[in-house]
Amino acid sequence: MADITIFHNPTCGTSRNVLALIRNTGAEPQVVEYLKTPPSRETLRALIAQMAVPVREVMRRKESTYADLGLDNPALGDDALIDALLAHPVLINRPIVVTPLGTRLCRPSEAVLDILPLPQRAAFVKEDGQPVVDTQGARVADR
Description:
The chain has a domain at about 1-35 and about 95-143: Glutaredoxin, CATH 3.40.30.10. Helix content is about 25%, strand content about 15%. The protein contains four helices and six strands, in the order βαβαααββββ.
């Protein structure tokens, strides 16, 4: 079984779709509900480093907390942004998935297909009705 971790928010449709795509391979990931169990500073820094993205890329900029805290200030450095993410986990964009093939912020949800070590076992349709995987387990081309 593949070693997969998903930093998940069960109220988020994208996060639910990603979890379902992982399970569609037959794998059962470690599910971290990050709003209940936020990552440590070290874990958060490691995830960001593994994704090789700026800290701001893992922030939910549409959250009112983002504006309320003035996090759009370009003068704020990574340490201040990480402090905000740790103090307000709702600001962490989701889902973040870790597999042996990489770590990725999986937005859109089909981005997870690029880092899953096992193939899809069946067709998959997102909650909104958009097909992602066909009956042969192949990715459906963007339309």
